Structure formats: C-alpha cells, structure tokens
Amino acid sequence: MTNHISTKWLGGMAFESNNPSGLNLKIDASPDDGGNGEGFRPKALMLSALAGCSGLDIASLIKKMKLEVDEFHIETIANLTDEHPKYYDAVVIEYHFHGSNLNETKLQKTIDLSVEKYCGVMEMFRRFAELEIKPVFHHT
C-alpha cells in the first residue's frame, strides 16, 4: 500500500498538506524562523503522529478487552539534537490512565502490544531514537 500526500506552498513559510482522511493541515515556521506561527511544526507533528498511532492501538484494545478507563492521555517528551540536521534522539512516552477501576496488568498489556507489535510509527522512531515507555496509573 502506498500513501500519497500533496503539500502546497502557500507563500512565506506556510504550506498546506492533505491527508487520506480528506482533511488538510497547515504547516508553518515560528516567527523566529521567518514564519507566522500559524501552522503545525513538522518535527512536533512527528510526536503527534507517534502518540496518535499508539493511542489508536490502545483505545481499540481498551474497547476489545472491555477495560474501564475514565480518561487516557499520552505525554510525549522528546530531546532534539543540537547539530543540524536536528532530530529526536531520545523520546519518553508517558501513558496516563485515570479511573476508579484500573486493571494495571491488562492496561500494561495494551501498551506492550502497541509498542512491540502494532504501532508502525513507533517502529519508525525506534530506528533513530532511544524510546522510554512509562505507564502512569491515576486511581481516582
């Protein structure tokens, strides 16, 4: 299967990129880098893609395993190298689960399945960055 994305220059430092979902997103540089700051930053989008890919896996598994989770969010904290081309060499991915009846063992299993088996973006990141996976359980 092939993904084909079209990205069009809008002038200045701004671009618009399409997506197979039919939605478009705007990419722009920060004012420090000559842009207007009116769009997403490309490297930060990679972190959103990583969290989104893994999050979709986990949401699907939570449903499939009938787990009780009131709230779930992912914090992605990445270290950018100092030298050009700058890239993420280390990424911490925190999976935060909130609820009064959290099954930590099964929720850990959902993380493991995403990280080790299902998430293609995670596999791509593994090629260039050290990954640290941190489950965080908030019992309410």
From TrEMBL:
InterPro entries linked to this entry: KH_dom-like_a/b (IPR015946), OsmC/Ohr_fam (IPR003718), OsmC/Ohrsf (IPR036102)
Protein's UniProt name: OsmC family protein
Source organism of the structure: Flagellimonas spongiicola
